[in-house]
Amino acid sequence: MSKAVSENDVVIVASLWLLYRGATPLRVSMMTPVVGNRYDDERRLRDALSARGMDVTRLSFSSDGPDIVAASDREYWQVECKSAGSGRQSTYRTSFDRGLASVVSYFGTVGELPAECGPSRTPLLALAIPATTEYLAQLRRRVRQSLRLQLLLWILLCDPGSLAINAVPPTGPLPSA
What we know:
The protein is an alpha/beta fold. The protein has helices spanning 7-21, 38-51, 89-105, 133-142, 145-151; strands at residues 24-28, 60-61, 68-71, 75-81, 122-130, 153-158, 165-168. A hairpin with a 3-residue loop joins strand 3 (68-71) and strand 4 (75-81).
């Protein structure tokens, strides 16, 4: 099995990638971890974003909706994040199905955004998952490029070792295992 990656780690690195891209994370949902508490992870996220120049007083936390909502003057992002543990193949498939279903449910919805985000934003969806063998197999088997193009669905692959993001745009090829 692949190295375990918590959902909160995926939320943090995906938020940093969005900020690097120019989209400010506005609302984030953090899971209550098995070990520790979610407030430590919220503090890690705030510290990481602040260290990269973001005014974190604008960041709010929510327990429903997308795991990350971010916006720039050109883009509006809704991101669903998933973890990777030491579960069986069926556990990965169930987690993948839930993540994909969640991100698809955000299609066509644009929430309330601050005025400085601009009136003409492209709504973008993203599924952020660890780049494990199990998730990559589900991704290649179940998410065709035509779906990604229709939804403007990005795949954000989180490397389990470095926690770096490999962003695959809707027009990009999916990586091989």
